[in-house]
Design goal:
Two copies of one chain form a homodimer. In chain A, 39% of the residues lie in helices and 21% in strands. Chain A is built from eleven helices and twelve strands. In chain A, the strands form two sheets. In chain A, strands 2-1-3-12-11-4-5-10-8-9 form a ten-stranded mixed β-sheet, sandwiched between helices. In chain A, strands 6-7 form a two-stranded antiparallel ribbon. In chain A, α1 runs parallel beside α11 and α7 runs parallel beside α8. The first copy, chain A, is globular. At the A-B interface, β6, β7, α5, α6 and α7 of A face β6, β7, α5, α6 and α7 of B. Bound molecules: 3-isopropylmalic acid (2 copies).
């Protein structure tokens, strides 16, 4: 099987980590019978400055017509308001209907200091406040701006369904390798704020409850948690959680919180998943403070490559990458500066490649 | 001076901690020349079940006409949707125009394991998604619900101004007692998500920037942080932060996150502050799991009493309470179960009273 992968480095350290993602795909053992071809695509703030658009049509069209999946690096947010600029990754998620943003957060055997964390945040990726329908009016007391938070039954249903499927798949992996996880049963925690937003978050909550009540999910323990308590609990007992499903904005916030628990955003991958398409994307940003120094942590990208492969139906290739990355972290010899080490991006990558 | 205080225990452990709040007011040394009178007021889910409204008009009217301040316990959120029920504390904040929700989070000398945390979250308390303007339509693919997120220049300006004033006041206290804090300069961190919500959160950001650029705030170091990064940073380096100002919902989420850092929600107070009025409110909820056992931690309420007194212009009385509470925590002999101890609400209260 040959997979064609779009490479969208974006801005800042995106340009340093996406090449590492390409390298690991090229280095996968031939026994997997997987081949890759690549196409470089533009997006980001620099693209905006050059061309007036942060997400050229060509990028979207090429992804749609030619590609099986893609890797997205990071984009810089301008530090002051720039007319006409709008985040290309948010737009891409909507244009390709990549409705699930999947963000696993996990300690490795060697890196956990006490509590083994092994959870995944399944974030709705197309609506909520991210519909970006805003308006501003000039009133007697100054400006008043409004934004729409939209929650649909359809999007809530499909995100909850994929959360349930992920919970079952994770349990399958645990069953196949007993003793590797603290979870004994699949669990999904529904996050919302329906005590204030009874209609929007109320709809998310009810729809998630209904979706997860399906017969095929009968082995899943379903709980819910109000978003503020969820952040509290996530910090107090992260080891308790398995799959957390959340509307877009809460998912955004929760995944950064969870990343803090495992030490660095530089470790946390994500995949933007739609039907038959997936974009791997490290959770970190463009990191202007370390840009160009060759010291960005490539782990989040390497894990995002694995996650993309999982959703493209290649779990064995994904498992190879996860195992190599975990071994690098457990040995802790080649770690990038965000992890307290002094290895370069290239050295971390080489160490992982050697373990493939 | 005599202050009349409304007591609104609400539901669950609210009924166990609010009496402790009353007791500490009554026990303040007479040298402070402060007297208190009290009026008991209803609100909450049980009130709703009895009367059909969670916030009776009488409660609002009595607060407006008779009271100088109030203490609010906690309310239960129904576990399924209940027609007509709506959170009384959210309504009270709006009806009394208590536009600032002030939530200090602080380790005591004895309780910090390494990093001394001393920050305060200043949360806008009247708008954002809490305007609760929602609607639901039935579309071809099922229900679609929408909520309005409203951000006004006026509310953003006044919350940023009070955040600046709090930063200066905190610096004044630090200057008077050098060596008690890790902060050397007042700092305000503006939290928003203007990279996605350019108009609403953009307006909050710009207005906060403008308000904090006022001459009287020239000694304040002003920074900003996107809300997801803010949660990440809050976990990674909480000791860095001084005053964090945020729109309503982000403030709600951030304050629970910060509470997790100091060990228990049972320690964290809040005050709902308007012009000339303040309601002290522990950050924890009604805690149905421990209700009726007499083991709720009263510290959050005692600190909320102090915070209320600060905003009613009685900093000396407030300081007495803070000092007594800190001494209880530092000695760590009478701690409630949430803190790993086995003292009852009454025992913790008695220990604090003895130190007044
Ligand atoms: C850059 C930003 C628009 C984006 C988001 O909010 O989704 C980022 O925080 C993320 O989590 O991917
Ligand atoms: C109970 C709920 C409505 C409330 C809020 O969201 O403001 C609570 O979480 C708080 O922080 O006081």
């Amino acid at each position: 099987r040959t997979l064609r992968i779009g490479l969208i480095p974006g801005d800042g350290i995106g340009r340093e980590v996406i090449p590492a993602g390409r390298r690991i795909l090229e280095a996968l053992p031939s026994s997997l019978n997987l081949n890759f071809s690549f196409v470089n695509l533009d997006a980001g703030f620099e693209t905006f400055q050059k061309t007036g658009t942060a997400l050229p049509d060509k990028t979207v069209e090429t992804l749609k017509k030619e590609c099986d999946g893609a890797l997205f690096g990071a984009v810089s947010s301008p530090s002051t308001k720039v007319a006409g600029y709008s985040s290309p990754i948010v737009a891409l998620r909507k244009k390709l209907d990549l409705y699930a943003n999947v963000r696993p957060v996990k300690t490795t055997a060697g890196s956990s200091n006490g509590k083994p964390i092994d959870l995944v945040i399944v974030r709705e990726n197309t609506e909520d406040l991210y519909v970006k329908e805003e308006r501003t009016v000039e009133g007697p007391n100054g400006k008043v701006a409004e934004a729409i938070k939209r929650i649909s039954e359809r999007a809530s249903h499909r995100i909850s369904t994929i959360a349930g499927e992920i919970a079952l798949r994770r349990q399958g992996i645990r069953d196949a390798a007993p003793g590797t996880s603290s979870h004994s049963q699949p669990m999904v925690t529904i996050t919302h704020k329906s005590n204030v937003l009874s209609q929007t978050d109320g709809l998310f909550r009810e729809t998630a409850r209904a979706a997860l009540a399906a017969e095929k999910f009968s082995s899943i323990h379903v709980e819910e948690q109000i978003v503020d308590s969820m952040v509290y609990k996530l910090f107090r007992q992260p080891e308790y959680y398995d799959v957390i499903v959340a509307p877009n904005l809460y998912g955004d916030i929760l995944s950064d919180g969870a990343a803090a628990l495992v030490g660095s955003l530089g470790l946390v991958p994500s995949a933007n998943v739609g039907d038959g398409f997936a974009i791997g994307e490290p959770c970190h940003g463009s990191a202007p403070d370390i840009e160009g120094q060759g010291i960005a942590n490539p782990i989040a990208t390497l894990r995002s490559v694995a996650l993309m492969l999982e959703f493209l139906g290649e779990p064995n290739a994904a498992a190879k990458i996860y195992t190599a990355v975990d071994a690098n972290l457990d040995e802790a010899k080649f770690l990038s500066p965000d992890m307290g080490g002094n290895a370069t991006t290239q050295q971390v990558l080489d160490d992982v490649l050697k373990r493939l």
